[in-house]
Amino acid sequence: MRQRIAQDIYDRINNGIYDSEREQWWEPGSALYLIKGSLNPARLGFVKRVLERELRWSLPGRSALEVGCGGGILTEEIARLGFRTAGVDPAEHSLRIAEEHATQNGLAISYRKGSGEALPYPDASFDALFCCDVLEHVRDLPRVVAEISRVLRPGGVFFYDTINRSWASKLIAINLAQRWKRWAFLPEDLHVWEMFIKPTEMKALLALNGLVWREHRGLRPNASPLTVLRCLRQRARGELDFAELGRRLSLVECGATGLMYLGYAVKG
Asked: Where is each Methyltransferase type domain found (predicted)?
């Protein structure tokens, strides 16, 4: 069973980027902008399929919370699906950006400061919970999953995606993405390999908290390995910004969960 991360491992991760004034989230020059072009299309395709074909939900009137919402790049997409939407995050700088951008775009999203380990909401507050590209950043994963289950209504759905702790993720998500300067595109220690989560660990935590696991799907770049390396090298040389990099290397669903995976569970 996955336990709380040891302090010496947690001290290595660079979560401070999310409260840095240098990171603007919605700017094409920010690495965080990759969420919009590379990650969100696959996430939203998965979510829409589950909501429409598996759960057969009608969304008007239903509520959703994104845990670890950051600058609101995914939160706004959730709101556009038709949910009454809220977002929670511990980083004040990111929340300010999220609030300003939502206001500019006429979206009524309720943002609040808080952590996944102690969500500032009553029991059974939401029909849907989203936690995407966040679980591998938290120290107390069992507590976060317990809190997600607590604020989710019976019959509600929990959507998540994260990175598998595997040889593939060490090669690609750590070395290629963060360490090898010829191709690296993320700040070093934005991710720490020991904090990645195996699908079996995720399923065990879901079951422990009354969440019935339904599906896992892998994620991979929609490009050949040579194209990926070429695009990353162009980005490192300043020939591509992160908006264009995201478009060229957008992620797609696949059957292999060895690198990244998304999934959902339903509260019993």
From this structure: 65-159
Cα angle, residue 41 at apex, residues 156 and 216 outer, rounded to 5°: 50
Structural domains in the chain, sorted by start: 7-164+194-219+255-267 (3.40.50.150)
- Rounded to whole angstroms, the maximal C-alpha distance in the chain is 50
Tokens representing 185 are 């595109």
Of 256, 253, 218, nearest in space to 44 by CA: 253
Over residues 159-202, the pLDDT tens digits come to 999 999 999 999 999 999 999 999 999 988 999 999 999 999 99
Q: What is the pTM of this model?
A: 0.95
